[in-house]
Amino acid sequence: MYAFFFLISFGASIIGAICGIGGGIIIKPVMDAFGALDVSIINFLSGCTVLSMTMYSVIKAKIAKDSVINMKLGTPLAIGAAIGGLIGKELFSYVESLFDTPNTAGAVQAFVLMLITLGTLIYTINKNKVHTLHVTNLLACLIIGFILGGFSSFLGIGGGPINLVVLYFFFTMGTKEAAQNSLYIILFSQITSVGRSLFTTDLSQISIVLLIGMIACGILGGICGRAINKKIDEKTVDKLFIALMIVIIFINIYNTVKYLGILG
């Protein structure tokens, strides 16, 4: 089972680094589908994997001097996401406390993620027909980042496709520019989210081997994804992203009905 989780973490981090979605949107629902671990543990492991990948990707881009991160816009977005990430974790804890079992909270996560992914897919397919904005206001960036961080943290996905849609629509970014800026935002939100989880999650339930292995796979995936991203064009990135969204929608439909016990 560990080997499969490592493979998923590695593959998700490759795709995450290419598309700028972090990888949590793949890791989280796939691990949920297997049901081998509690939802809170999966959230933590997914968050640590995403954090390692984004940290490598952002730092490496800076060192290599090929970063296209818009610091003027990206930094307030990232700060807002970091704060929103804390609120998102609190919101999930509250939702979890409303139900007798964590499985029901997992069903809520899966259903909301499915709806957001579906909306993202529809937007991505039609994005060339949508009139976009050029937001530059500092306060607006902080608010947008806060909302992004809150949703991502609540869903346990690190950042995912929500970031890309927001960067496309509010800031008129191209696919690859949006990918790098998305990873920068995810990095900040994951630092606070994982930091909080260190104090609120029962770490005794987590295998050190599994944790270290997934973090290592996140970094390796970031290395491979970054290399692939340089060799493909934006249309290919868009096609990969669309295909991924379709797969994730079906996985989350499965997870929703599984957590609700509909599948028995």
From TrEMBL:
Answer whether the UniProt record assigns the keyword Signal to this protein. no
For this protein, the record's PANTHER family field holds: MEMBRANE TRANSPORTER PROTEIN MJ0441-RELATED, MEMBRANE TRANSPORTER PROTEIN YJNA-RELATED
Ranges that cross the membrane: 5-27, 33-56, 68-87, 107-126, 138-171, 206-228, 240-257
**Family in the record:** Belongs to the 4-toluene sulfonate uptake permease (TSUP) (TC 2.A.102) family.
Q: Which residues form a coiled coil?
A: none
Q: Which organism is it from?
A: Amedibacillus dolichus
Membrane topology reported for the UniProt record: Multi-pass membrane protein
Q: InterPro entries this protein is in?
A: TM_pro_TauE-like, TSUP/Inactive_protease-like
Please state what the protein is called.
Answer: Probable membrane transporter protein
